Structure formats: structure tokens, C-alpha cells
Amino acid sequence: MLPRLWAFSIRLCRNRHDAERVLQRACARGLERADQLEPGTAPLSWMFSIIHSTWTDELRTRKLPDRSIMECANDLQETVRDYRESDPAKGFDLIIAAVERLPEAQRIVMLLVAVEGLSCSQAADVVGVPIGTVMSRLSRARQTIGAQFSQRSTADARSFTPGRATR
Fold first, then answer.
1. Distances from the Cα of 159 to the Cαs of 21, 66, 130, 147, in angstroms?
2. In the prediction, which pLDDT does 95 show?
3. Which positions ≥6 away from 3 have C-beta within 8 Å?
4. pLDDT tens-digit map of 50-102
């Protein structure tokens, strides 16, 4: 379980130092509260929930603001490089960058469902919100990411001149 917990922690915290601290605290909490793991609950989902709450507590302690909707809207105005590059790793990097620009609540749900493979129900348990909220956040996250790439495609189509070589 530890490699998946580490991967989630580093994606959630966005830097190694915070991820190490959060994972350490979450593992300690998990061990201290092992008797609270209810039958039928997946231990991995339970630990994701503990990591999420530990990170949320950390943010509150630091009084760091979450990314606002306005920041997200401003990020969408940035030019997105061509995702159809011949190198698949570049396309992957663009997708990761797009996920990183999502508002915090959407980013966390996207990580849990798309990266960690949790169901919407499990993700709802992890973040402590109704399943409908998870589905809504996931939908908005996908739309935001899709819009970033479709804006670029539309711009490419407008600038295309038949018979002229492009990139």
C-alpha cells in the first residue's frame, strides 16, 4: 500500500517535503486508529481519507488559501502547447500540467478517480462529501481540462492555411 499512498501524497501536496510529512503523520494516525477501520471498508481508501484530512489540517494550520475559481479562469487563458506532439511524454506532461491547474477540490477528486482508480463512491468517502458532489467536481474537472485542449485545437484550425506546412 505504501507506494500508492506515497504517490497520492506527493500528487496532493505537490512537493516532496510536504508529502513526506503528511504521509508520515497519516501513517501514524492510521496505526493509532486501526481499530476504527470498519469492516467492508477498503484499507487503501481509508488511508487515502486519512492522508486527505491530514493535508487539509496542514493547510488550515498554515492558513494557505486554496486556488480560487478566478485563478483557474486565468490559467485557462494561458496558451497550451500542441498536445499532439510526436513524443507521447510531452502530451502526458501537458495533461499533468492541466490537472495541476485545477481548483484544489477538483484536482483531488480527479487524482482519486482517474489516477488512483477509486470509484466515485470511494472518493466521496475519502473526501467526506456526497457522491453527487464528487461526480460534479469530476465532471467540471474533465470539462476544464478538455476546454484547455479544445481551445488550442480551435486556434490551430483557424491559423491553418491549406498548402502551407505547419510545425
1. 48, 37, 44, 18
2. 79
3. none
4. 999 999 998 888 875 554 433 444 444 343 444 444 555 666 778 788 888 99
CA dist 73 → 11, 102, 147 (Å): 22, 10, 11
For 82-93, the three-class secondary structure string (H helix, E strand, C coil) is CCCCCCHHHHHH
Q: What is the pTM of this model?
A: 0.64
Half-sphere exposure of 77 (CA within 13 A, CB side): 4
Q: At what angle do helices 43-62 and 16-32 cross, to 10 degrees?
A: 120
Instruction: Please classify residue 94 by burial: count the beta carbons closer than 10 Å to its beta carbon, then call 0-12 exposed, 13-18 middle and 19+ buried.
Output: buried
How far, in Å, are 13, 14, 37, 53, 56 from residue 17 at the CA level?
9, 9, 28, 17, 16
For residue 151, give Cα distances in angstroms to 5, 14, 67, 83, 142.
34, 26, 22, 11, 14
- Rounded CA-CA distance 96/152 in Å is 16
Whether the Cβ atoms of residue 33 and residue 41 lie closer than 8 Å to each other: no
| CA neighbours closer than 13 Å in the CB half-sphere of residue 73 | 3
Whole-number Å distance between alpha carbons of 140 and 107: 10
Helices (DSSP H) in 14-161: which residue ranges? 16-32, 43-62, 69-76, 88-100, 104-110, 120-127, 131-159
